[in-house]
Design brief:
Layout (H helix, E strand, L loop, with lengths): L1 E7 L18 H20 L6 E8 L7 H17 L2 E6 L6 H9 L4 E7 L3 H6 L6 H13 L4 E8 L6 H13 L4 E6 L7 H7 L8 H17 L3 E4 L2 E3 L6 H7 L4 E4 L4 E4 L2 E5 L3 H6 L2 E6 L2 H12 L6 E2 H8 L3 H4 L3 H5 L3 E4 L2 E4 L7 H6 L4
The structure holds iron/sulfur cluster (SF4).
The site of iron/sulfur cluster has 11 residues, from loops.
């Protein structure tokens, strides 16, 4: 079984922290993009790569910045997969959301919606250049439920410029009041060549210090767990049964086909990346292909699998590689340092060490 990722690189406005490939575009540009995207889809169809799709994920960018006609054109092309997959997600921004979109999602079996929220604080929203409000998000969720879509994620962020504990606590209270079954809570990452980086360099904004960020991570995790959210991946929390099938596929190194500019894919033993700029994508969609050696594949398996709190199944590792993690990696040091543990046949990062996961990951890189 495979995943299918579809990238829509258009947004209505640009968030200050964002370094994803995206752009603000005219309708004609979006039309042209869709034509090439569907051509690429056809190519994988013809190669027989889309026979057993378990999950579809339409991400961006902002997929619901497409017009209703464009969205429907895309969903019609994806229908054979949307009808059979277990989980079909679309990312949306709520300020662009309409009931007509919810109707369309429901018609084409989109059964999971991920809403980009980051914060509900109006000052912070302005700082990061996001255009929604708590009320807009609330009414989006209400409309999605009206059309039978209950599996809703909200993407939140901590460590935003000017964010303090008081704002974070209020954000969490509001997030919980929405009663969605999945919350992703990401730590802001300062990326190069973003507006945020410029603002920071020119002392226009200030970021919370590391201690405060660690306190925020601790607080939000405790708070969500108290409300029966399972912390199942570093940045992901879900009510039982609502863990993202598509994303777990990435962390378990399952194969997936990625289509669209800047999309990546994994068709064992090959990982590929598509061209980022639209003209390059139109000329030749593939940018690079990397063939993984057995050693690369093992490292990736550990790196990605340890992101999940349950860790890596030793028997699954054996099934895949006919060897054991202990034989392939020097894990003793990590055990002695109290960073990882083995429980019920799984190797995992200790829960209280999940925030230093990067140190642990470095062990497997290089
Ligand atoms: S909406 Fe998403 S992709 Fe678009 S600029 Fe903001 S963070 Fe980036």
């Amino acid at each position: 079984m495979k995943g299918l990722y579809v990238h829509i690189p258009f947004c209505k406005s640009i968030c200050t922290y964002c370094d994803f490939p995206k752009q603000i575009a005219k309708e004609s540009k979006k039309e042209k993009y869709l034509s090439y995207l569907l051509k690429e889809l056809k190519l994988y169809e013809e190669q027989g790569q889309l026979k057993d799709i378990r999950s579809v994920y339409i991400g961006g960018g902002t997929p619901n910045s497409l017009s209703i006609t464009q969205l429907e054109r895309l969903l019609i092309a994806l229908r054979p997969y949307l009808s059979n997959a277990l989980e079909n997600t679309i990312e949306i921004n709520s300020e662009l959301f309409t009931e007509e979109q919810a109707k369309l999602f429901s018609k084409y079996n989109i059964n999971r919606v991920s809403i980009g929220v980051q914060t509900f604080d109006s000052t912070l929203l302005k700082t990061i250049n996001r255009l929604h409000s708590f009320d807009i998000v609330k009414s989006t969720i209400r409309a999605l439920r009206k059309y039978g879509i209950e599996n809703i994620n909200i993407d939140m962020m901590y460590g935003l410029p000017g964010q303090d504990m008081h704002i974070l606590k209020k954000d969490i209270r509001r997030a919980l009041s929405l009663k969605v079954p999945h919350i992703s809570y990401y730590s802001l990452i300062l990326e190069e060549k973003t507006v945020l980086e410029y603002q920071l360099k020119h002392h226009q904004i200030q970021l919370p210090d590391d201690d405060l960020i660690a306190d925020m991570a601790d607080y939000l995790t405790q708070k969500l767990k108290m409300r029966q959210f399972i912390h199942y991946e570093i940045s992901n929390y879900a009510k039982k049964g609502y863990e993202s099938i598509h994303n777990i596929g990435y962390w378990e190194c399952e194969e997936y086909v990625g289509i669209g500019a800047s999309a990546a894919g994994y068709l064992h033993p090959k990982r590929y990346k598509n061209a980022v700029s639209l003209p390059e994508y139109y000329e030749k969609h593939l940018l690079e292909e990397i063939f993984l050696t057995e050693e690369d594949a093992k490292k990736e398996y550990m790196l990605l699998g340890l992101r999940m709190l349950r860790g890596i199944s030793i028997s699954a590792y054996y099934k895949r590689f006919k060897t054991y993690p202990k034989m392939d990696f020097d894990l003793d040091k990590l055990y002695k340092m109290g960073l990882i543990e083995e429980i019920n046949g799984f190797i995992r990062i200790k829960e209280d060490k999940i925030w230093v996961a990067n140190t642990i990951f470095e062990k497997f890189v290089g």
